[in-house]
Amino acid sequence: MDFVEVPVSEDVPVSEDVPAKKSKVKKEKKKKLKREIKEEKEEQGPEPEQPSGTLLPPSYSLSEIKNKQRRHLMFMKLKQEKRKLKLDLRKKRRKEREALGDKAPPKEVPKTIENQRVYDETTVDPEDEEVAYDEGTDEFSAYFNKLTNPKVLITTSDRPRGRTVRFCEQLASVVPNAHVYYRRGLALKRIIPQCVSRDFTYLMVINEDRKVPNGMVLCHLPDGPTAHFKVSSVRLRKEMKRRGKEPTEHHPEVILNNFTTRLGHSIGRMFAALFPQDPQFTGRQAATFHNQRDFIFFRFHRYAHFLGICTNQPKHYNQKQLE
Questions:
Q1: What's the CA gap between 212 and 230, in Å, rounded?
Q2: Is the predicted pLDDT of residue 172 greater than 80, yes or no?
Q3: 142 membership: H or E segment, kind and range
Q4: Fewer CB in 10 Å around end: N or C, the chain?
Q5: How many CA atoms lie within 13 A of 157 on its CB side?
Q6: Given a cut of 80, is residue 68 above it in pLDDT?
Q7: DSSP 123
Q8: Which has the closest alpha carbon to 181: 152, 161, 208?
Q9: Stretch 214-228: mean pLDDT, rounded?
């Protein structure tokens, strides 16, 4: 290819003014935007001044800060400021109450899950005839009529780990007449007929996940019912502070709290049928099932008798002291 040189005359204008025109257009647009923003602020009026001491939220969200350390520092600062504000308000209210004395307004009751709970319509009256009929004809009636004695088989999922094994052993020491069997690939379909033939009244299966017990299946034999519970916050006996002696072979007392609904009534009877009906009070042991916020808290503890000492008793003197 041949290149031909074309002379450029001095009269022809060079296109250097084009970018200059574009920059002028941008500047004019920015000026217009600023004018519009000013007009909007004038129409809205002056912004209300916030009193000193109040916490102003940041004009940006903490998630926009890319630096992790900087983000953490800003979050901690905001948290400290909120805590200071809460303390100042609490001190101010306390001073006002002290100044007003008896004329002070009543304290505000904090909102909790318990006092905000809606009344459950399925709450039953224990003296109801229908409830009494159900209790006399359900699967636990033979136990409550003292026709059968509880006998429990505690088993685990296939090849349990150390924490689950210790949990099963401590359960067997808590529940009287309980036996532990560790499964090694044996199906439950083969275990249940053997339990029924050997007069077991309950089958308890402890499941685990990541070497930690996380579930329990409680099956009443031979005809059910069966319930599945999630297990959380397990604390073994060694992990308890100020723990007492090891549990004895005495039959414990059973305490059931807040099993008032129709479902809770049957669940409470299921737990009660695990233990013999004749508690031995000399052992001073108690097994507590407490129902709260749809959680069942289980505690096994031992109580002690404390004799009160009266300081106003008359003094006894000997005959020699009286002479």
A1: 12
A2: yes
A3: helix 141-144
A4: N
A5: 17
A6: yes
A7: B
A8: 152
A9: 92
Specify the residue for token string 């905000």: 116
Q: Kindly provide the residue ranges of all beta strands, DSSP E only, lying in the chain, ordered along the sequence.
A: 152-156, 178-181, 202-209, 212-220, 226-230, 253-257, 285-292, 295-302
Q: Are strands 178-181 and 253-257 parallel, antiparallel or unpaired?
A: unpaired
pTM for the model stands at 0.62
Q: Say which DSSP state 141 is in.
A: H
| Burial of 261 per CB tally in 10 Å (0-12, 13-18, 19+) | middle
Question: Which CATH architecture does the domain made up of 130-302 adopt?
Answer: 3-Layer(aba) Sandwich (3.40)
Instruction: Provide CB contacts within 8 A for 206, sequence distance 6+.
Output: 154, 155, 156, 157, 160, 164, 167, 168, 171, 213, 215, 216, 231
- The alpha-carbon radius of gyration of the chain (Å, integer) is 38
Check the CA dihedral 153-157-159-163 and report its sign.
negative
Q: Are 263 and 122 contacting, i.e. CB atoms less than 8 angstroms apart?
A: yes
